[in-house]
């Protein structure tokens, strides 16, 4: 049995490494389609004569002289255009010394046109990720390495498989459920190994996703949420996504947001019960399940509030506008955007409440089942 567990762990690690390599290749070749390339550069001078300022916003065109700092054109100076549309959340005005990202057009090896895209933030983002990875590995050691690989693998599945299939018109809910079940399996078994705790956490997560999906379909139809409340949904339609089922894509986003917390709850409960069983091998099924229920109650008590704070943080400025305008509570909760966030928070919280007891029952049964009951000879004690 021990060899089977190790083999399964290596299989899942191999799958994750393959996915990480795939997404790495996709990212390395992103922005290099046709004769357009993306390169970093440093601004050495700007021309702001054609910029019209209106309050905090600005419209017009900024011209910048930029030195390319990487790639085959390293050291070359180009004149880049920065278009300003009056959108404070998207526009950026550059000053000399800024490191920016350029889109350059190449014809016969020469740059014929250049456009400023964004500030070049990639190096600091990588530094922040390195701090996260180091902290994770230093504290959790081998488990931290597995968690890091599962993190990258999940990112790869979402980027290289899930999103492209959504854009191609695949049914969002069946696709989302299949992807989340797959990700739950790979993430849980990679971190915990192919153990009874891992199986319990996986089954509890899947049951929680099923409940979340049912509640999403039932209450989503009655709240008349069409799916256009998610960021960039209008832009997605303008770019040709008229055939996409935006309502079910919104439902899928709710499932996706709830799945991570559900996995967390399931692992907390199952691992805690595994520790109890290790310290008290003679504990009975009912007593072990009761311990799991107690752990679940404590975790859920804070997790539900965590979801509220996380979603509220994303819409803090919207809440500030409501308070500053003295908007009534009745009007606020009936707004489509607010109703969508209330829906997201409560559906996710109910899913969490269901995951904990289901996982406790499954773990209580599996942890107390004898090896012979599974048709496997009990391994010799080391």
From TrEMBL:
Pfam families: YibE_F
Keyword Metal-binding in annotation: no
Keywords annotated in UniProt: Membrane, Transmembrane, Transmembrane helix
Highest classification ranks of the organism: Bacteria, Pseudomonadati, Thermodesulfobacteriota, Desulfobacteria, Desulfobacterales
Protein name: Uncharacterized membrane protein
Entry's transmembrane regions: 123-140, 147-167, 173-194, 201-221, 249-267, 345-367
PANTHER family for this protein: MEMBRANE PROTEIN, MEMBRANE PROTEIN-RELATED
Organism encoding this protein: Desulfoluna spongiiphila
Domain of life of the organism encoding this protein: Bacteria
């Amino acid at each position: 049995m021990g060899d089977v567990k190790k083999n399964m762990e290596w299989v899942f690690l191999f799958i994750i490494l393959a996915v990480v390599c795939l997404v790495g290749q996709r990212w390395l070749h992103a922005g290099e389609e046709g004769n357009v390339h993306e390169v970093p550069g440093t601004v050495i001078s700007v021309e702001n004569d054609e910029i019209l300022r209106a309050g905090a916003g600005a419209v017009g065109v900024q011209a910048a002289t930029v030195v390319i700092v990487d790639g085959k054109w390293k050291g070359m100076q180009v004149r880049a255009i920065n278009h300003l549309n009056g959108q404070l959340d998207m526009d950026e005005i550059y000053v000399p010394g800024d490191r920016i990202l350029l889109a350059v057009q190449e014809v016969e090896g020469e740059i014929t046109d250049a456009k400023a895209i964004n500030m070049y933030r990639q190096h600091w983002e990588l530094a922040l990720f390195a701090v996260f990875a180091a902290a994770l590995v230093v504290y959790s050691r081998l488990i931290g390495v597995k968690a890091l690989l599962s993190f990258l693998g999940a990112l790869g599945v979402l980027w290289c498989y899930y999103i492209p299939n959504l854009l191609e018109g695949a049914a969002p809910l069946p696709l989302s459920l299949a992807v989340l079940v797959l990700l739950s399996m790979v993430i849980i078994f990679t971190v915990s190994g192919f153990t009874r705790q891992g199986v319990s956490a996986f089954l509890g997560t899947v049951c929680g996703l099923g409940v979340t999906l049912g509640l999403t379909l039932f209450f989503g139809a009655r709240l008349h949420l069409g799916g256009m409340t998610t960021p960039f949904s209008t832009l997605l339609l303008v770019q040709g996504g008229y055939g996409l089922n935006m309502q079910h894509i919104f439902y899928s986003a709710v499932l996706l947001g709830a799945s991570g917390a559900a996995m967390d709850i399931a692992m907390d409960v199952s691992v805690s019960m595994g520790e109890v069983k290790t310290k008290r091998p003679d504990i009975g099924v009912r007593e072990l399940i009761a311990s799991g229920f107690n752990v679940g109650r404590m975790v859920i008590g804070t997790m539900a509030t965590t979801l509220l704070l996380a979603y509220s943080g994303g819409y803090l400025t919207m809440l500030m506008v409501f308070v500053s305008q003295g908007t009534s509570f009745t009007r606020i909760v009936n707004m489509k955007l607010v109703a969508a966030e209330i829906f997201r928070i409560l559906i996710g919280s109910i899913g969490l409440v269901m995951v904990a007891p289901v996982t406790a029952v499954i773990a209580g049964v599996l942890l107390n089942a004898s090896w012979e009951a599974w048709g496997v000879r009990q391994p010799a004690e080391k």
